[in-house]
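the two lines:
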Amino acid sequence: MKRMNFLDNLQFIYNDSQIFTCNPNKPLESLEKYIKNANSFNYNNNIIIGVKLNIISELFYNNRLFKLMVSSRKKEIIEYLINSKFEIENILAVYPNIYIPRFCFNLTDSSSHRILINEILLPRKYSLTFINRILLMLFSNIINKYKNPDLLVGNIFIIAKKKK
Amino acid sequence: MIDLISKIEDYLNISIDYKKYLLIGNAFDKKALFLYKRKDNHPSILVRIPINIRAEKLCENEYNNLLYLNTIKISNILAAQPLGKITYKGFNCYIQKTLFSNQMQTNLRTILKKPRVKDFNIVVHFLSIIYNKTKSTDNLTDKTFFNCWQMGDCWIGNLGLYNNSLVLYDLEYAVRSGYPLYDLLHFGLHYFVALNNVGKLGKSIRDGNYTNKLDNRIFDSIEKMFIVDLINGGKFTILLKYAINTYTTKCNINKKDTKILIKNYFEKFRGIGNLKNDWEKEVFKKIL
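prediction for all of em together
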């Protein structure tokens, strides 16, 4: 857990909030430590947690058939926060990753997700390696057909607030 | 950020959906924010947000050039409509209408890595229209060319096509009193750079640990290779020769002045002409 100055896009969205991020490889253990530190810092009662998701597990988790077989990291962290007396304020989707969130939008905002993929990233596909180009094109096809493309987001920031 | 959106809402007297936005950050100290009107599924407003004075100057220049292009209205040339500016956190933020198009960079040949004749034809056609519409005949000199509006950063990534029109993006470096041919040479040079950067990004993005340090794309040194490529008769030589000749014919610029413009573009404007003595003679032999 450390304070990262280069997360200024998030700071911009949250009005220069002091942002602590945490990329928990072992989510719950590191989260516990993180929440303690954030509490002692006592800034706005907001905490922001960067989480790298495994898109495949998230996709499977959202399918009724696979729900019992796979776990969702997003769900796991949200539940942990709620049990720790936090309420979820917002979930932001970011690209390309949680360390450099150059593109940010609300996770439920499928329009922005489509604009980002179709109008911003896809036209620039030439700079990607062949495999990534194919993946991006596939991604774009799915995103155009799929009703809730938020399932395809691999990096998110969960913004939570301490319950009063 | 909510306070900014609220200001924009008041300024434009429209209702904005606060839950929908796309924030793009940190390209040369500027942020871009796409906003949606309530119930819209397509963003209709783009806000340029500078975070320092240098970035603010660039945004201001872009805004003024958008105003200029939207005032003089060149047929088949489109640029976003400027909607106004507001102050936010000590800097001016510039609001414009969104303008989507089929971006030309989508069609870059990633397998063959060769320039498309069609792209050059399109650019020559539209740039000659811009020159003939914006040339300033006030200061008559012994030259066959006049100062004109120059886009400044005319590379394939800043151009799009929409309903038989050319769409111009990113006018931060545009100038009202620029030079003809510069935009075409810039287009050729950066087409070359783009093709040399095909397939450079990959693993780090997939692994989720992309940083600027892991970005393998090269820009400055490839620019210098462009002249070497022209001297060696590389894949851009014939195409650029054809493009320059067509453009100068349409713009009535003679060969002597074309040579002056090419030399000045590479040496003064880009600062990459001084690779070796008399480079220009060898380049002229190939492309004129």
